[in-house]
Amino acid sequence: GGLDSATPGGMRLAQAALALAAAPLLLGSADGASSQFDLVVYGGTPAGIGAAIAAARANGTLRIAVVEPSSQIGGMASAGGIGFRDIGVLSIVNSTALAWANRNALHYGVDYPVWQPDHFVGNASFWALLGQHPGVTVVLSERVRERGGVSMSGSRIVSITTAGPTGGGADQRTFEGAYFIDASYEGDVMRFSGARHTWGREPATRYNESLGGVTASSTNPFPGSVGALWPNGTLLDWVQDGPDPRKVVGEADDNVMAYSFRLCLTKRADNRVPIQAPPGYSTERFELARRYASAAGGEPHSPWGNLPYRSYPPGDKFDACCGNSPMGIDAAGLARGYANGTYAERDAIAAAHRFYVQGLAFFYMADPNSGVPPAMREALAEYGLCKDEWPEHGHWPPQLYVREAARLVGDAVFSQNDRVSSASPGGCRENSIGTGAWGFDIHQMQRPVVGGGNAFNEGLTDPGTGGKPVYEIPYSVLLPRRQDCTNLAVPNCPSVSHVAFAALREEPTLVQLGEAAGSAAALALSHSNAALQDVNPLQLQAALRELGVVVHFPERRNCSSPMPWQCQTFRVSGAGDSACNGAYALVRGLERDGAPVWRLDEAHELYRWEGDWRVAHEGESLFYAAGGGAAPPPTGWTAQDAPAPAPSVECSALA
After folding, report:
1. Residue 425, helix vs strand vs coil
2. Could you give the CA distance from residue 533 to residue 488 in angstroms, rounded to a whole number?
3. CB neighbour class for 37 (10 Å; exposed up to 12, middle 13-18, buried from 19)
4. What are the pLDDT digits (tens) for 256-311?
5. The Cα angle at residue 566 between residues 565 and 568, in degrees rounded to 5
6. Given Cys at both, which of 196, 374, 595, 650 links 409, Cβ 3.0 to 4.6 Å?
């Protein structure tokens, strides 16, 4: 079990000791040093870690480097604060993600996966997973050079050269490799290799996407008219110049989904640090928020949502996510220019986000001149930064939430219309490398000034837009065009449209893409350094299954194999609650947890929930449950909150 949660420092020391004891070789920077590897992974994100582990498990003799530009591995899962909380269908989250969550559970002494732990625990768990593979070398604080950072020979990358944490230091290091995986959130190795890529939004017509291009609205508009200009006609802070979105619907632009910092908040007095005003703060810098609070009639929406950490045993930490306020901590439009910017420009944009998020939090929590209703300010002020998180960064997440940057443009581009249920016709893909289950979760895109000088939010969708069916992801999303590069895979900036990326950008999905990239590199190495485009998808699927990746959903050998749930009617019998007994018919087109639903009557259903099957009274707590799987099992049912005995369930009619 874990240590007492009241001693966060003790937890940190214990976990750090555990991590270092099991850690892979950690190298510092060396002037002019050159190292040779079979595989070089740029980016110690979950996708990068998954790639290294997958390649090492495929061949334990491989020399693998994980080169991380910052001082911490883990990306958004630990350095950024969100863990693996964004899970649409639990049963498809397996392999590295599940191993990480189970290792977190060991720390707390619980028997269930912990998807959003203390971030020092999550970081230590990543180190421990990497530490199981002695062929993996991790190098921190090495950013690829902006000029001359990627060396090519024909269509193959020969090496990457880094120059310290800024990418411009005097001490340089060269990493030679047979294969490269760009697992950074920005896709810099991809960009500097010359592989075709894009950023921003494609026009709706390019891939015939109903959600493509500029949109006409947002799910959190400003109420009425909120002026965005000072009396002299200059713009307030946090709005942008640009055309009225309503006049250019469907057109392309260079905006990306809003970035932010996902703060760790707590109300626990002994672990709470008040949020201070950032240097240079003034109420006037947040005049737009003051005007919004006034226009909201004294009832403004919260600038963020305090989401309880997912499956976190102590239950006293909250994820400051997004919020439904028109003026929330998602910094609409502020990230424009980041995707294709210089390092200096990016660093300035990241600093602007820090000022915006910290300043807005202080504005709502503590600024007496903000116009925020006192009751709201007092309620928000009960929270503070978590003292035991990121103390070396002032308890602030070191990782900017880069929701979207550059995207690869390969020989095939996965678009909105390709994200279809794996159970529907055409949904099973013979070249599938993993599965996702999330809606078209597009965050705010911009905040321009429109007619009359008013602020206008554009782009935000409901996270469940388009539903959350399980869908299969093709191998092609990882690969540049053959003429561009044949030994590079790109899991975090894949060959997908802006709209499609909104449905697969969640860490539990990206880590699967990383595992596929690492497995593909190992396969190519075993076939005389073949082009990644020539890797056999069936062999790749076999390797991924060995890792536990769900390649097809429901799982089957190939797309011509029968669906495991092709049952028209299940007969439930022997339940202590006799009302649950009877013939449950398949409900066409209805899914829960990525699986079909069978219905007895308006009050009784057979369905899956968080990986387990249930026979339940709809809307009530009385139910029987059985372990997960592709289809309801005939036996193994237990009475959860219903009278014993538990039933048996048998398929009585095939579809």
Report:
1. coil
2. 10
3. buried
4. 999 999 999 999 999 999 999 999 999 999 999 999 999 998 788 999 999 999 99
5. 110
6. 196
